Amino acid sequence: MTYSPDTKLYTAEGGRMFSMNDLLNTFTEFGSMRVSDLHLKTGCPPVYRLDGNLTRMKGPDLETPQVEALSLSLLSEEEIALLHDRRAADGSYFLGELQFRFNCFYDSDGLCLAVRALESDPPPVEQVGFPNNVWRDIVKKQQGLVLVTGITGAGKSTTIASLIDHIARTRPCRIITLEDPIEYRLTSRKALISQREVGRDVPSFERGLRDCLREDPDVIFVGEMRDRESASWTLSAAETGHLVFSTLHTRDSRGTITRVLDLFPPNQQDEISSQLSLGLSHVISQKLVPRANGLGRVVAMEILNNTYAISHLIRTRKLEQITTALQTRTKDVSEERMTTFERSLAALVAAGTVTPLEAEKWANNAQAFRDELQHVSDGR
User: Fold this and answer.
1) What is the pLDDT of residue 318?
2) What percentage of the chain has pLDDT greater than the value 90?
């Protein structure tokens, strides 16, 4: 039996009937910057991720037939066949101005669905929340690797899309993106943009990168450096005169550089250290922290600028000294513009945007955060 996304299948508290489209319209009501995800699972009511926290809808637990009907209403026949074959399937869905990506999968209780909202347009780069003017340096770059890192849902793709969108509006250049899936639909303005989706337009990131270097790009976005081969091609692209953006699931700058090196065997790591020291431009590590007023989240960033001193530390693999550079090279000038998470969080507390208790929970080093907060309180 087939179901439409408009079929009313779930009765919430108060007797209101919900279809799949009704459940997705909640993203529009609150705004996708606040409600980021929807989860459907047998034995639980629909669950939303609101301001980073899971929030259960008021109503009875979903039963297996309801989860199956709601989930399958989003899938094409090909995706349903893939789900039965591989026990998981990815897809995307449009509703009004919003695009959603989803994953259907099986667990011990049966079918589950995870849905994420994707904004149609990235926010202006000025509104992303950079703690300094480093973005102005990045959008002027002609070459180098910019890595934006953080956990899933930290807003990495939004930051990169905002940077690329600014470039597209201000520079006549060729931009090619390789994404899985495409999250923001970017418009060719001064720039000429081609967005390629892995699995639909190209079989893999590696193949896309091989092709990309023969397609006359100036700016390349690689959705994720997933393995040794994609990392190798990404580094090569940055080294050969392209501005390259990519992401990693790492929590800070030092961990990011370590992760890149660890993708390669020990006998190659000296070579990769040298390549990274020359090709890296910036590492932006970010987290989304709940606002003090309870309405949404705000970004906190650690920023590494690959200055000559940082390049030397990477090449000689003295990564333990990177934190000192982040703490001292903080002037808002192109030659510096670095900051730690702890300093970024302390500035948000000083502005009244985040509470001290919440900020300390998100700090990588609680004592370093308390020291930064004391410096802010002392007016330094």
Assistant:
1) 95
2) 75
- Is the pLDDT at 379 greater than 80? The verdict is no
Alpha carbons 105 and 92: distance in angstroms, whole number = 15
Q: Which residues contact 34 (CB under 8 A, 6 or more apart)?
A: 50, 51, 295, 296, 297
| Two structure tokens written together for 348 | 């948000």
What is d(CA 372, CA 353) in angstroms, rounded to the nearest whole number?
16
- Locate 169 and state its tokens: 């509006």
| pLDDT tens per residue across span 24-43 | 998 888 776 688 899 999 99
Contact 52, 34 (CB under 8 A): no
For 149, 158, 276, 283, 302, the CA distances from 134, given in Å and listed in that order, are: 16, 16, 20, 11, 11
Beta strands in 69-213 (DSSP E): 88-95, 98-107, 110-118, 144-149, 174-179, 192-197
3-state SS class at 355: coil
User: What pTM did the predictor assign?
Assistant: 0.86
Is 350 exposed, middle or buried (CB count within 10 Å of its CB: 0-12, 13-18, 19+)?
A: middle
Architecture of domain 10-118 in this structure: 2-Layer Sandwich (3.30)
Answer yes or no: is pLDDT of 145 > 60.
yes
User: Comparing 52-61, 179-188, 270-279, which segment has the lowest mean pLDDT?
Assistant: 179-188
Contact 301, 129 (CB under 8 A): yes
Please determine, looking at this structure, whether the domain spanning 125-339 carries the CATH number 3.40.50.300: yes
**Spans of all domains in the chain:** 10-118, 125-339
> What are the phi and psi torsion angles at 9 (to 5°)?
-130, -15
Helix (H, G, I), strand (E, B) or coil at 104: strand
